[in-house]
Amino acid sequence: MERTEAMTDPALETKATGNDVAMAFDEFMTAFEAFKAENEVRLQEMEQRMSVDVLTSDKLERINRALDANKRRVDELSVKAARPPMGHDGTERKTSTNQMQHKSAFHRYVRSGETGALRELEGKALSVGSDPDGGYLIPDETEATVNRALKDISPIRAIAGIRQVSGSVYKRPFAITGPETGWVGETAPRTQTNTPTLAELSFPTMELYAMPAATASLLDDSAVNIDEWLAEEVRIAFAEQEGTAFVVGDGVNKPKGFLDYTTVDNASWTWGNVGTVATGVAGAFPAADPSDVLVDLIYSVRSGYRGNAHFVMNRSTQAEIRKMKDADGSYLWQPAARPGEPSTLMGFPVAESEDMPDIAANSHSVAFGDFRRGYLIVDRVGIRVLRDPYSAKPYVLFYTTKRVGGGIQDFEAIKLLKFGI
User: Fold this and answer.
1) How far is CA 96 from the centre of its chain?
2) What is the rounded distance in angstroms from the CA atom of residue 407 to the CA atom of residue 79?
3) Interval 154-170: pLDDT, tens
4) Whole-number average pLDDT of the chain
5) How far is it, in rounded angstroms, from Cα 197 to Cα 19?
6) In a domain, 397, yes or no
7) What three-state secondary structure class fits 322?
8) Could you give the number of structural domains in the chain?
9) How far apart are CA 210 and CA 234, in angstroms?
10) Residue 134 falls inside a structural domain
């Protein structure tokens, strides 16, 4: 039977079952056991010959890639299995009359281009996020679905602090110096203390856009859930662009990534800079006791930040660290105990971001710290859609925009591992 466009639409994709997740997780654990067995062969060859057979190295790398692929498959299925249906956050929620009217009007706009009902609703609401020349606000439920999907697939958004604002800039004051304090006797005179010195961090929001396309037959098909279709189409594009900006963005028309700030050796760290710990070897871990530099990185972060700390690195760096053992012969990297949970390194969860650099001379390929306190993502309320049936006929384009900003808000909370001296 010929598959129709609606049947292959992502909005109609079936939800992953618990059995799918369990089977994928079993395959992942089997791959990890195969990896450990082959790595033992590699270590024995190094001890006996002071070198590793090429076939052993190639086989280990193939297993490593399979392990990464299995992990991504488990994560994807776990997200699908946990994803609530449209309009729900895991529990029943009543929809107001205004929300229902907005949703109905938005569907008519997307399917046929009718704008009258949307103009009237947004005019009554005096919405600051609406601009008929730049598009119309999507329903609240659809916006929540997009944001939830972004958090599921964007590694930095999943661990960072998030604020929603209605304006274009979020400003956060912080104290450079605190008020003077001290001990005093019960009846002793109290001297006047100095007031704290305050400064201000500013996080402007920048416009991020995606432009999914649809055919007239898809828009005419009543079986297609327009909200889910739009959310599915834009979430990947938004997540990829955001993920890159949060790591390496230069702050020009995009968020400022945590790797774009000035770095200094952690021994001479000052506010406004990001502290680094050096491996002592250009482009590599030390040959002897390589895990020691990871310990140094962990303890470069103050104890108050370590309770919610994460490692952040890309797949290539994680594959290198996956081979390391501690003095007792236990692997430093451990797979997740259950599907949907992150892998751990020395007891701390690992967030895998492909925007982190590969290991190279003087690269900052591993980050560690409390990103919820250290890095702030600012979302402006409202996602807008502008329907364009003319630019790419016979397809209908949907110019979808959201405003997002980001930057470091606490320079003590995040440290970097520098692969150099």
Assistant:
1) 32
2) 27
3) 899 999 999 999 888 99
4) 82
5) 57
6) no
7) coil
8) 1
9) 6
10) no
